[in-house]
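TL;DR need structure tokens for one chain.
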Amino acid sequence: MLRSLLVAAITLFLTACVGITHETPEAQQQMKRDLNLTTIIDSSRMNWCVHPYGSAPGCKPNRGVGIVTPNGLVMAHFVKDKYVLAHVLKSEDIICSSVPGGASADGYFFAFAANEAYMLGPLKADRDEINTHFKVQMFNYLHSKGQYSYSGPEVNFQRPSGEKVKQTTVISAGPATRVSTEMVDVLEIYSPCK
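>> reply
TL;DR here they are.
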């Protein structure tokens, strides 16, 4: 019973994150009020991850709202009918970025600051597709100081950390089973900015 109640509560919480309204005039006014903003250039439902350099790739993304203002990219959660500040990224914080396909392409955006990398995924209000209109606004703001952006597959921001772990693979082929064990590199996030 308790487990069912917990599953229902988590489902409700995640569904509430998906249903955050941000584009109505009322929501825009509430964002300004709750987050002490004077001007909103654009907003979007958004997922993001913060990766300190040296940490392992992969994350469970934060879900909330991204807001482009003249003074920063504001990332906020919507908690108990109120917008709550999570992070602010300023243009001067960004050294470079990796935006495969360019600013208007359908895909995630990776921004690199002095001590951490940000995975930014702006989403359309009604479905889990990249909000390319907002992504362009976000790109333009974060690159307003002339930061370089990698747009092709040539950039890599994961490298071996120097540590290895044992990886076991089990391959079943009919009645035979093969078990293979090897040592593999543990990867870490680093900045590709030069």
